[in-house]
Amino acid sequence: MFGYSRVKNDVFIFREKLSEEVTPKKEVETKLLRLDEVTAQHWKELKRLRGSLGVLYRKWRYGSPETYILLAYVDKILAHIGWVVPANKIRDRYPFVIEKSYFIISCFTSPNFRGLGIYPSQLRKIVESDIPSKVYWGMAACDNIPSLKGICKAGGVKVAEAVQKKWFWGCISQVEYFQDRVTASNSKSKSISQKVSVFKDDYWIGKGSRKLLAYLGPHLEKNLEQQAVRRFIHGKGAWGAMWDYDHDYTEQGPWYRCICDNPDYDESAIKSKNTRHNLRRGLKRCVVRRLEYSWLADNAYEVYANATSRYKDFRIEPKKEFQQQMRSFSQVPCREAWGVFVGEKLVAYLTLFIHGETVFGDFAHFDPAYANAYPMYALYYTVAHHYLREKGLKEFSRGTRPLMHETNVDDFLLRLGYRKSYCRLGLYLVWPVRTVLCLGKAFEKTLKLMLPSRYYAILKGLLLAQDVAKATNRTVNLTYN
């Protein structure tokens, strides 16, 4: 095909520390600059080394206040460059990159300075810098032996392979990500038997006017058969379904659930002194108790409206729809709800879905006017403590990585003693939706200007789900009834 290429790459994560220092054979002056710190002279040097078109494209494609450029000089001559790109600028192309991490890309050493150990030494400069990153990623073509050796020397550990396909010289690209099973063998989950049917109505809930079904049943060890999923959603009149499987298969990945599974969960599980202080203030100022859904239907809409008014690209349900939904939940035996009160006023609530030994969080909202009472600290702590320590259930799951919008709720829960359980994402969409997404990906920048922001957010979320499902799914295992 005209302008088509296919490259197989090795994907690496860099160790934080090495036992031996990586030293180049010549003295190197290193400058690690934020994009807004790069001067006109620097840009001129970059263009001379890498060409104007490539530099301008990367500046446009990856430019942000959090993007860095490394410049390495030997005898005042620019010998090596590298781009250090934050996850939020590159995850649409490489969905396996986790939040709050950086990808080191487009590294290039001038031919006059190769073989001097400059590349691995500059990789270490980045990894050991003050850039606020949890993880540094690197990637090189499988047949690029010098780059692979340099990455390994700099402490890179191979975690996966990625096949990058490009059409029209990279205007359209696709990345398929294959986890390295050697680094992905730490399974802690109790999985469902292969003889048990997962297509029970009780195990699935509807999202987006029930057009997308989400699985909330016992843990799945393997993927679902696509044809079985197709038959199931066809009977429900849905457009697609998504499910998680192979929980805790790795320690890093693009898809996760935020959970608490500590059977002895209490304040001692919270490491941060400041978080413990806020929790105690929340427990002192608030009262957390179980609620009936019929009561929520009549009294919780004000909290819901005040909470969701802050959300971008979110449709706030009319009061009548909200009340109908809450009353419908009261008819489902496995649903429970909790509320937080300051005095006699409801300021937060959480709806739950219980199956077996797992409690799934559904909707959680709080009135921002009462943020200084720390209601969510009190709510999430009390719920986890109640179900895990008092009732002896195995797990409370807040939910999965958000697709439609950025949120800091998972960072908050990690401080509260929760953890991320990395898993694989299964996804099936009917062919008209897949066709729309294919066109949407090709014309994404145009659609961003044309579509209302809410519908563009839905498009981006579904495209991200497709990429994550491909990144975490190596094979389809036809094992479930």
Quick summary:
By secondary structure, this protein is α+β, with helices and mostly antiparallel strands. It contains 15 helices and 19 strands.
Structural overview:
The chain has 481 residues and is of the alpha+beta class. The chain folds into three domains: 179 residues, Aminopeptidase, CATH 3.40.630; 104 residues, no CATH class; 165 residues, 3-Layer(aba) Sandwich (Aminopeptidase), CATH 3.40.630. It has 15 helices and 19 strands. An eight-stranded mixed sheet has the order 2-3-4-5-6-1-7-8, sandwiched between helices. Helix 1 packs across helix 2, helix 7 packs across helix 11 and helix 8 runs antiparallel to helix 10. It is globular, with a radius of gyration of 25 Å. 37% of the residues are buried. The C terminus is likely disordered.
**What class would the helix/strand composition place it in?**
alpha+beta
Number of strands: 19
Question: Averaging pLDDT over every residue, what do you get?
Answer: 86
End-to-end separation in angstroms reads 40 Å
CATH superfamily caption of the largest domain: Gcn5-related N-acetyltransferase (GNAT)
Strand order of the largest sheet: 2-3-4-5-6-1-7-8
Task: Report helical residue fraction.
Answer: 25-40%
